[in-house]
What does this fold into?
Amino acid sequence: MAYWQKMRGTTTSPPRVSLSEVLWSWIGAFLGIAAVAWIHARMLAQSDLVMIIGSFGASAVLIYGAIRSPLAQPRNLVGGHVISAVIGVACFQILGASIWLAAAVAVATAIAVMHLTKTLHPPGGATALIAVIGSESIHGLGYLYALIPAGTGAVIMLVVALLVNNIPHSRHYPEFWI
Amino acid sequence: MTDNSSGGPSDRRLDPRNLSDEDILQAMKQISGFLDITPGDFKEIYGVAYSHASRRLLSTPANEIMTRKVHFVREDQPVLDIADLMARAEVAGIPVLSPEDHVVGVISEKDFMRRMSGTDQTFMGLVASCMSSRGCPALTIKGQTAADIMSAPPVTVNPDTPIREIFFLMREKQINRVPVTEDNRLAGLVSRDDVLGTLASFPVDFSPEGEK
It folds into this structure.
């Protein structure tokens, strides 16, 4: 296909989902984010720990809103966040003197490694980025960031996904585990 | 009937390449949940998967589709015997074995027709000949044996010959059955029905691998 021709697109947008799908997406996302946000606010408020990071909002889209997606499966959710978090922290610690470079390397490398490990999860890119451009308290966590909040938060949201996504007759989750 | 003109029957055949975006969108609507795939992606995956399935089906070996319990006759068997056996077994063709059990020929209804005189080598020619009371044309070969009327050497295939090859072989040689042999010995028989039964389940893409 000619270069410019490719930019015209080749097919149509997928259809809109049913209202019940919309409703269950909302319920799942509400409960999943509520769980990590509540723990963050109520249990970790006195500590330097965090439980919620921006990338969980993106994970919620997938694991409550597009639950059939390969990107939304447990392997990808947990693997993607943990792997990207480690890469993000490493990039900050090695290249932190140049934040723009550390940020770019972190996200690009996170995508590459998620691909190689078959754990591609788009919010992982944000998790890696946050490790670089995040607050002082995030930087202070060091590699613990990969465990709390990244790993633990992903697992909590996964538990909510398993509980909520399997309630309606029309839904089942996950498609696969490993 | 030819289908080489545009808008011909080939355009309406149920074939993965004829799935419209509308068909796929309808299916995606019917399946609950958000499928993060475009109709175009689906079509591409389906098309490629279909070619794979097609190729797999066409490479089904003879021994998976052949009939194993096969009637056969001996070279020296009289044609009356053979006609009797074929009538009772309701078969239109039968392999001929040598004393060493090697497949040395095949006898079909066509071979009978061909050897009889005054039939124009067709069934209707035979009927016409009988009714015009010129006597039964079959009497002309009554004293003969299998070896006299059989088609030899026989067209045979191996147990691992793929169905694709058998299909083209039958078409090229204009035959309706091929004995399957292993070391020249009869292992089974693949009839046109066996081939069609396997292929009829879906429209198969006969184009060679990689060709679009």
In short: Residues 39-58 of chain B form the longest helix (20 residues).
